[in-house]
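Data availability (excerpt). The following record was deposited with the supplementary files.
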Amino acid sequence: MAADPYATLGVARTASEAEIKSAYRKLAKELHPDRNKDNPKAAERFSTVTNAYDLLSDKDKRAQFDRGEIDADGNPAMPFGFGRSGGNGAGGFGGGGRNYRAEDFGGFGNDGIDLGDIFEGLFGGRSAGMGAGPRPGAAHRPPAKGANISYRLKVPFVEAATRADQRITLADGKTIDLKLPAGIEDGTQMRLKGKGEPGPGGAGDAIVTIHVEPHSFFRRDGDDVRLDLPVTLDEALGGAKVKVPTVDGPVMLTIKPATSGGTIMRLKGKGFPAKSGGRGDQLVTLEVDLPEEDADLAERLEGWRDTRNPRAKLGV
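Predicted structure:
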């Protein structure tokens, strides 16, 4: 089970939205994978901190957590030991095929339970004061279905974008490959008919809630994927062909001569699958990366000045 989200962010339970946001920004900046490339544990903590902020920044989920209705993973916190502890999935690049245990995910529902029927089963008749004999219409009531079982499935960013199959093991021990739907996003729910608890009227359903994990350098923008790509000064000035990572694997990108930093280039069909069909694009923002100290470059530029005013359009 995930740690207490308040403890993860280092804030009090009475913290305001602004205090929670400030604590998250500080930790996210400190733990971001771009700043901790040689520290894999920082990436794990970055994901944990992000999950904690996702819960506490949602007013409804925070209220449910404070009332004890859900746990830190967002799973129902059922009384008397009913339910299953929350779990998590592995992150990173690559295809699907990871194995999840049913006890790693969801909660336990009580759909369709009739307390009157329970009393009748215990005492051989109806509850006190209700009189003897069958209730009107009781013979026409269909038998109750079994309870639904809730699962929380963490899917890495790249696998969500490429709709990689997710292998899970359900409560009955059966293993299935789950096909992710087009238009998948954080919070998407999938219903698996008849994969819940057994009951006299048939089995309930399995409800799988998808959590798309953040990525170390890709960002989602609707159905598009955004990426900031560093390029050298000579690549920006003279043009070049550079390798660019995408959710489908690296591709070559052609940069025209005299390309300015901040230029956005579009890679068609390299985004998330859209509900309407097709896929979004990948938007690559070029960032000119200058060396901190380069005597040769400084010598070559000595005495040269760009007389243009690139800020003229800003009125300064």
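Summary of structural features: The longest strand covers residues 224-231.
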